[in-house]
YjbR protein (Williamsia serinedens), 127 residues
Amino acid sequence: MPHPIMFDDADPLLARVREIALAFPESTEVVAHGRPTFRCQKVFAHYGGAVRGGDRRDHSLLVKPDPSEVPALADDPRFFVPAYLGPAGWVGLDLDAADPDWAEVRELLDASFRLVAPARLVRDLEF
């Protein structure tokens, strides 16, 4: 039985995340478990998720941050530990919490991409 779709394709926040995420070399979007994921062979971002042990956050971005950034992100109330992915070092950014800082979103996606992408794709980054 397939997962139900848990996003609105016309969501303007998703549109902006797509624009940024799909600009990375060879990145693609695949719906998995009812939500958009962004991949470069491996998943580097999820749109939407849930707080570990808590509420759904349909307008959130889940990424794997640079390990040196984790303490600062943990102190920021916009960030949360996502269900399932949190133990693997992923964090969630609640895009509904305030006006998203799109430069920050781009930096988070960039860091996540660099951590999971094959080395040849990281070398192809032009930004």
